[in-house]
Each structure stands twice: as structure tokens, then as C-alpha cells.
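re: ur question from earlier - yeah i can do the single chain one, its not a big deal. heres the input i used so u can compare w yours
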Amino acid sequence: MLDRESYVLVQLLGPEDPQVQALVWAMRDPKMRDSALTMLRGLARERGIDPDDPPVFGMPNGLSPSDYPLGRAKCGDMVGEEVGLSREDIQAGGGIGIFGTSGLGKTTLVKILILKFLGKSI
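and the output i got, formated as C-alpha cells:
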């Protein structure tokens, strides 16, 4: 069982990441727990995440390829995978929610989506 800090770092770094999985495994041993947490915190710093002030959302991992790429995910200084929508996402039904406070670029994002759907470049 992971403590809150370890759980948050694992989710931010990606629970499928082999390095993260190895550290989680090591944390199962009480003698290794402190060392593994220190290494997990170091891995977070290496990847641009301040473990003392983690972001609210982590980097998306293992995304399906985007037919309508919008850009790359970013967390602090770390740039991650390409993000966008795929035909599969759209055909699955449902809707698209775009949330954020005033001035974050929601309208601009919708405009970019419309241009991408129309096959026009930005």
C-alpha cells in the first residue's frame, strides 16, 4: 500500500513506466521504502516535476495516435506526448468537454479543432 505522496508521484510519472514499477515494487519491503521514495522523488525531479509542489494533473501516458493533433502535453518544463483527437474518439460518441478559467484559451482551442477537422493548417 502506497502512502499519499508515493501514490501521487506514481500517477504523475506513469504507473506503467518500468522504472516507476520497480520503485513501487521496492516500496513493498519496509527496509527499502525510504530509499525507494527518495529515488521516486529524484525521478520526478529528473522529469521536470517538483515533488514538493506537484502539478494538479499529470502527463498523459499511452495515448492513442491522434488523427487531429493539437500539440504536445506539457507539465512544468517537461514536454510529453502528442495530444489530440482520433477518429476512434469521435466515433465512440459522447462529447468533448473543454474546461478552464477565463483567459486560458478555450475559444482558441475550439477554433483550432474546427480548422483541424476541416483539414486546414494553422
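Strands lie at 68-75, 78-85. not sure if urs matches, ping me
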